[in-house]
Write a structure and sequence with these properties.
With 180 residues, the chain is an alpha/beta fold. It has a single domain (2-173), classed as Rossmann fold. Helix content is 51%, strand content 11%. It has seven helices and four strands; from the N terminus they run βαβαβααβααα. The chain has helices at residues 10-22, 39-56, 68-75, 82-100, 118-132, 145-154, 166-173, and strands at residues 2-7, 26-31, 60-62, 105-108. It has a four-stranded parallel β-sheet, with helices on both faces. Helix 2 (39-56) links the parallel strand 2 (26-31) and strand 3. The protein starts with a strand and ends in a 7-residue tail after the last helix.
Length: 180
């Protein structure tokens, strides 16, 4: 069975790839990049994934271009709901490629993160599956959270400090000073 796995970064791919292979899947990755800001961060994550994929011996499709403006335009004035747009855009892009590539399933490494909303990811994945005709494979990969982190450290992979978009980068680093 062939599965196309949306991959946000190398560390988040480790456990899902291993788990899917153990279940008999032939795994190919898809790196979606429009939601990763700034561009230098995107390049760091892409390079880490290339290194991991080469060592892990699996192929990855790397999205071409970098539509920062499109991402921003689609979330402006809806910043509090940006993750829903982002989940949908990444999963829809993955499903469309899976359909063209005649994959049996598509899935995402978002299901590995304890910081993502699994209910929404699953719901969006299942909805996109209905519209594309490619089944969404849901599996809660969070059970491998610690193992994936330890493996990424052992492999000396770049481990990003925030989800990806410029808004999550701000949430991670910007702390408003209290005025006295």
């Amino acid at each position: 069975m062939k599965i196309l796995l949306h991959i946000c970064c190398a560390p988040c791919a480790i456990y899902p790839v291993e788990s899917l292979r153990a279940k008999g899947f032939d795994v190919m990755g898809f790196f979606y990049r429009n939601n990763i800001h700034p561009y230098t961060e995107c390049l760091r994550r892409e390079e880490a994934l290339k290194n991991y994929a080469d060592n892990g011996k699996f192929d990855v499709i790397y999205q071409e271009g970098y539509d920062l403006e499109g991402f921003i335009q689609n979330v402006v004035y809806r910043e509090n709901q940006r993750c829903i747009y982002c989940y949908h855009d990444r999963l829809e892009s993955t499903a469309k490629i899976a359909k063209r590539g005649k994959f049996d399933y598509f899935s995402t490494t978002l299901l590995y993160s304890k910081f993502q909303n699994h209910g929404i990811v699953k719901s969006i994945g299942e909805s996109i599956a209905k519209s594309t005709g490619v089944p969404f494979y849901y599996h809660d990969f969070r059970v491998g959270w610690k193992a994936g982190i330890e493996a990424s450290k052992r492999l000396k992979l770049y481990r990003q400090p925030y989800c990806g978009c410029i808004y999550s980068e701000k949430e991670r680093y910007y702390k408003e000073k209290k005025r006295t």
